[in-house]
Design goal:
- The strands form two sheets. This protein has a 15-stranded mixed sheet that branches.
- The radius of gyration is 22 Å and the shape is globular.
- It has a single domain (83-450), classed as Clam (outer membrane lipoprotein receptor (LolB), chain A), CATH 2.50.20.
- The protein is α+β, with helices and mostly antiparallel strands.
- It contains eight helices and 17 strands.
Amino acid sequence: MHHVSFRQCLLLTLLAGQGAQAAVSPEDAARLGKTLTPMGAEMAGNEDGSIPPWDPVGTPVPANFVPGSDNYVDPYADEKPLYTINANNWEQYAEFLTVGTKAMFEKYGADGWEMHVYPTHRGTVRPDWFYANTLKNATGATLVADGQKIEGSYPGVPFPIPQSGLEVMWNHMVRYAEPASQTYDTYYVDSSGNRVLATSAYSTSVYPMFTTPDEPVGEKSWTMLRINYDAPARRAGEILLVHEPGADYTEGKGRSAWQYLTGQRRVRLAPAVSFDTPNPGVAGTSTYDDSFIYNGSPERFNWHLVGKREIIIPASSYKFVFESKLEDALGDKFLKPEYIRWEKHRVWVVDSTLKEGQRHLYSRRTFYLDEDSWVAAAGEMYDGRGQLWRLQYLYGANLYDRKTGYGSAYGAYDLLQNIYNLNGKLIPGRFRNGVEQNEKYFTPKGMARGGVR
């Protein structure tokens, strides 16, 4: 029997108390770039061919795309749906549907909710330095402080071979993105089918931790996000600034947020821009931590890794995101099915339950994260009674002339109040890669200078 000294025993006890989790072995890490993609997905397709192998070349650039235009046309415009799932046949596909999707068929199938399922594409690629850092992270990055902090990580996927649900969620929380700006509208549709404009805004994001690929993440921000609100009239002139950490949500180290409110004409710290505070950007129909399916500190929930499944999710959403007017796609009870493209992908499934003694509107949340990009593609939220309350989908696409993706359009269906919202859907032609603004724009002082007087 291997002898464990008192000192070793004490160290193990301390680590367990901090929630430390070890990195994977060099033998496991060696699978990256071989049987696993450089980001940790299964390189091979599935047995029946409905999920193809990963394509290291990336998404094809359509012949009618104008380089540098930022106007992303659909590279799969000529494809037709392989099949449609509707009220009559959805139970045949139940094993490939999320809990939320099945609930949509049960509630709205008779009203025309259906899914047009297209061929699956796996063209998610990233820069070579990102792959190299991901390989380093596989054996070097660890979760400490009860999962609130990553130590030893470089700008890449922190946990490409995850051992826990929280590692999977961290991969989503610090997913790769490049600076961009967009003008977008946010709507919600009430239980009578009325379309209500909740927000018109100009949003700009930069990602500081990815600008220094050779340096550990340390205390660098993952993103600095600024939103200037133009509508409705009562919110015109407001500004929101959020700095999101890249590796540390321990006390005093997490999210920093500021608001400029026109009535007060001053910039104020905004600690309430987090957790289950109703998000005014969607007229309170979702919470702040519903943004991008999930964001922010994971401290209030216990996280459980369910495993990996083949699930039909929205994907390759070029037509909806870049080419369609949101107003045209809004149906009375759900987005019009002809606007949404669905594909079968392998996803990581993570379930979470509210920690004892913590407070949140949701008692449980389940998330589905695409294996190729680590982006959360869908989620379900349960109320305090354990009843399914809201479900979400993200509508994203690869930017095929760049080694990154776009995933700012997402929405929630509220099954209890019979309403739905769609947030962050850009106005066609109003997306730009890169930012014109300098670093000062993303500071509280920069907000004050830009405020309406």
